[in-house]
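Record type: monomer structure entry
Structure origin: computed from sequence
Chain ID: A
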Amino acid sequence: MVRRLSCIIFLLFVVFVVGCEEEGPSVSTEAKEKAVEVKKVKLETNMGDIVIELNEEKAPITVANFLRYVEEGFYDGIIFHRVIKKFMIQGGGFEVNLQRKQPHAPIKNEASNGLKNLRGTISMARTSDPHSATSQFFINHTDNSSLDYVAGKNDGYAVFGKVVEGIETVDKIALVRTTTARGMRDVPAQAVIIKSAKVISGK
């Protein structure tokens, strides 16, 4: 009887150990399936390249919107039309002659996603209406906490990525001489052109 009981306990132990060993691969696979795909976009400008890593996990609507414009070639040939040193550089809406491009419909503001407007981050530009962002974006030249979301106080500007290569290009652009043109202030005197915008990574 004792011997039989010992055999049963041993078999149960073997089953438990094998079961634990078999759980390993499934957990690993599940983790891989949950891994967030990271996309990068390269902005080739006449002053150098800027590579932006997009945060699809925290800003899915905004990233999808930005990628739509990139894949359509909307940003190819447009300019950084508003440049303010120690603040930000803004583009995404005007051609070299300051002709406005026609964007798609506005998107929901995702500024409450927890991301901050720190130096080198990219955010959506908008009007006083928090949900008015379309194609225009800006890259923060310095930390801009005044642009961050604060519940009940500030609707904020939605951060959706960060510069991972070419921050020196951002610095160069931020230092260009600006002027007033067609009623717009802070326009670079010499056009800063985005020659192309392309997705260069999908993982």
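Annotation 1: Strands lie at 40-45, 48-54, 78-84, 88-95, 121-124, 137-140, 159-165, 178-181, 184-188, 193-201.
Annotation 2: The CA atoms of residues 89 and 201 lie 24 Å apart.
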